[in-house]
Design a protein that fits this description.
The structure holds 2 protein chains of 2 kinds. Chain A is α/β, with parallel strands linked by helices. Chain A has 13 helices and 17 strands. In chain A, the strands form 5 sheets. Chain A has a 5-stranded mixed β-sheet. Chain A has a 5-stranded mixed β-sheet with strand order 13-12-11-16-17, sandwiched between helices. In chain A, strands 5-4-6 form a 3-stranded antiparallel β-sheet. In chain A, a hairpin with a 2-residue loop joins strand 7 and strand 8. The radius of gyration of chain A is 21 Å and the shape is flat. Chain B is an alpha+beta fold. Chain B folds into 2 domains: about 190 residues, Alpha-Beta Plaits; about 100 residues. Chain B has 10 helices and 7 strands. A 5-stranded mixed β-sheet of chain B has the order 2-3-1-6-7, with helices on both faces. A two-stranded antiparallel ribbon of chain B has the order 4-5. In chain B, a hairpin with a 4-residue loop joins strand 2 and strand 3. Chains A and B meet through strand 1, strand 9, helix 4, strand 10 and helix 12 of A and helix 10 of B.
Chain lengths: ~350, ~325
């Protein structure tokens, strides 16, 4: 890794990395053609026995999730930033290891300079960005942090009159693009995102089927498969254990209600950003709402958003990015590519 | 029969006479044979294309081959025969009380013995042959030990030049004796100037055929009292003959040089092929070791240098400003 072997001569090339460090999923797009994504889970063997069994010092992603009973298990990011409070240091370490892992998966060569741009939530506090920066700095030669929705817009060359909505697991970031660098007043972040859908779904199922046994993780998988906000949708019947016996439950309405729970706050945020924008350009902004992030894969979301925007704002046009998983990392990669050499040098 | 001896060349020759010892012994034995009139045979044995084999497969194979040759020579000869190495990569074998015909049988045994051995070169069985030159003392007239040695050496040279794996008994005793006599005379103090100038003596090291031709010319011009017409005719014939001989010699030399160059090219091509194969195997082995140790060399980036924003990019000025602001925000952080 670059930071641990500074004596390695790096004259073979320059590898750019665009990283989308997400609460649920971390993705990388690299200038060597590699694109990888890993669930943002990190686990360390609990004891010597677990270490011997797992044959690894640290596990990531779905492997960590699968073996979590033998691990000190971390989901180091919450609301798009490194968790603080209890186990703060451990979370920082887990985040650093996660960034190291996603960089390793990008297959950098030891003789190449590695320059990375990492997307962070629009309104992340400066100390949160600093924590991400420090964690990444151990693994790359130079790193920059930028706003996640901005990187999505930059990747698609939609820098004018566009309202970008990046729906992640921890946060939904909204960013108003109007031909300049978005300021704080151009960005909004709320926590009505993927995790909120999971919690709502859990609450609704528990109310309706108190005998059903499940975990948030199980619900997350169900949501990723069946998420939908449309009025008419295929019935969602899933098997959940009841005292050990798999039992079918119809959760069609619960899924729809849970997924719709993020739409209204989203429309409120859109209304706020549009309402505070130059009146002359409000119509243009309403007509170019861009949905990105994993949450944009909820079926019918664009139509439902347009419907509610029509009710509250008198109209609107919503588009989806083509690659929700890599939209952020692709944009960050483009920023890394366009960044002048002297800027990278100064930050080394 | 397969030979995988680890005996080195030097080790194999430890039991043989050194060049000085064998020459001394051979000279004593030769003098004794001449005095008491018993037959004696000298064989010079050399491995065919030994230096090329060493170039291709290393000195280990050379040691093995020479070890095997010493073993074959030991089993094909008597205790009383003298065996020793000479300086020019050949082994001398002096066989007393043996007629010329007997030496041919012995040489055949040695040739067959070497052919029966299979050597392993890069895992493939390879046959390696020897060439043998022979000389004997069963002839009338003057004969020195040096001539015997030179005749055997000439036989070895001819056997090698003819493709190897053969025994050649040369019959150039007279030629070498004459040459020796001439060299001796040239080395002696210069005699008083003769009344009639004689043609210059043949140069040492001249091709045997050309030397004989030179002798004939000298003989002819030494007749003195011939008719002028005959002399002119003889001169013409001699000149024509000499020119013909020179042309043939030139062609022969050119052919030999071409052949040598071709052999060298083939050798180099084989060496390149072998090195390429070794390189491929080494690379494959490195990949295997890296895979076994989970070492990933990585995937090379498409960029060799830092890129930066292109002047022709869409909204280039705006993007330039945006890059600057991102940078400033990071510096501030």
């Amino acid at each position: 890794m670059p930071a641990t072997t500074p004596e390695t001569k790096k004259d073979a090339g320059v590898l750019y990395l665009g990283i989308d460090l997400g609460t649920s999923r971390t993705s990388v797009s690299a200038s060597n053609g590699v694109r990888e994504t890993v669930s943002s889970y990190v686990g360390y063997p609990k004891d010597v026995v677990a270490r011997k069994l797992l044959q690894k010092d640290v596990l990531f992603g779905d492997e960590a999730l699968e073996k979590r009973l033998s691990l000190d298990f971390f989901r180091p990011l919450a609301h798009g930033v490194i968790k603080s409070g209890v186990d703060s240091e451990k979370n920082v370490k887990a985040a650093a290891d996660l960034i190291g892992e996603i960089i390793r998966r990008a297959k950098p060569r030891k003789d190449e300079l590695v320059y990375a741009v990492i997307g962070a939530p629009a309104q992340a506090q400066i100390h949160s960005k600093k924590a991400i920066h420090d964690a990444a700095r151990q693994h790359v030669d130079s790193v920059m942090i930028c706003s996640e929705p901005f990187s999505v817009a930059y990747g698609l060359d939609m820098l004018d009159d566009t309202l970008v909505i990046d729906i992640g697991a921890g946060t939904t970031d909204l960013c108003r693009m109007h031909g300049t660098m978005p300021e704080d007043s151009d960005q909004l972040t709320n926590t009505f995102a993927g995790d909120h859908v999971d919690e709502t779904l859990s609450k609704l199922i528990r109310e309706k089927y108190p005998e059903a046994q499940f975990t948030i993780q199980m619900l997350k998988q169900i949501k990723e498969k069946h998420s939908n906000v449309a009025d008419s949708m295929l019935p969602v019947v899933v098997n959940l254990p009841v005292k050990g016996k798999p039992t079918p439950f119809d959760i069609t309405n619960e899924i729809r209600t849970a997924c719709r729970s993020i739409v209204s706050p989203m429309v409120d945020a859109i209304a706020e950003l549009i309402g505070t924008f130059d009146p002359e350009f409000q119509e243009k902004l309403k007509g170019r709402v861009l949905l990105g992030g994993g949450g944009s894969m909820i079926k019918g979301l664009d139509v439902e958003l347009e419907r509610q925007m029509h009710e509250k704002l008198g109209g609107g046009k919503v588009m989806r990015v083509e690659e929700p998983i890599y939209g952020g990392s692709n944009g960050a990669l483009k920023i890394a590519h366009d960044m002048p050499a002297e800027y990278w040098e100064k930050l080394r | 029969m397969s030979f995988r001896s680890s005996a080195s060349f030097r080790g194999s020759l430890k039991d043989l006479f050194t060049p000085a010892q064998i020459q001394h012994l051979m000279r004593v034995e030769f003098d004794r044979a001449q005095r008491y009139g018993y037959p004696l045979v000298l064989l010079l044995v050399g491995v065919d294309r030994l230096s090329q084999l060493q170039d291709l497969y290393g000195s280990e194979l050379r040691d093995q081959v020479e070890g095997a040759l010493v073993s074959v020579l030991r089993t094909s000869t008597r205790e009383s025969d003298s065996l020793g190495c000479l300086l020019d990569d050949s082994i001398a074998l002096l066989v007393p009380h043996t007629p010329a015909e007997g030496s041919a049988a012995m040489a055949k045994r040695i040739l067959a013995g070497m052919r029966a051995i299979s050597f392993e070169c890069d895992g493939r069985p390879t046959r390696i042959t020897v060439s043998i030159g022979g000389a004997h003392n069963n002839r009338k007239g003057e004969l020195s030990f040096e001539t015997l040695l030179e005749v055997a050496g000439e036989g070895l040279r001819v056997a090698r030049a003819s493709g190897g794996n053969r025994y050649v008994q040369s019959d150039l005793y007279e030629f070498f004796e004459q040459r020796r006599a001439r060299e001796k005379a040239a080395a002696a103090p210069a005699p008083a100037p003769a009344a009639v100038a004689s043609p210059p003596a043949a140069l040492p090291g001249l091709d045997p055929v050309m030397a004989v031709l030179g002798d004939k010319i000298r003989e002819l011009f030494g007749l003195g009292e011939l008719d002028r017409e005959i002399l002119v005719r003889i001169e013409r014939e001699v000149v024509a003959s000499a020119l013909r001989e020179m042309n043939e010699q030139l062609e022969r030399t050119t052919r030999e040089h071409r052949s040598e160059a071709q052999e060298r090219i083939e050798l180099l091509e084989r060496r390149i092929a072998k090195l390429s194969e070794s390189l491929g195997m080494t690379e494959a082995e490195l990949q295997r070791v890296m895979a076994a140790k989970s070492i990933d060399p990585g995937v090379a980036s498409i960029y060799k240098t830092v890129q930066g924003l292109s002047a022709t990019a869409v909204q280039a000025e705006l993007k330039k400003t945006l890059m600057s602001k991102i940078f400033e925000a990071n510096v501030e952080m």
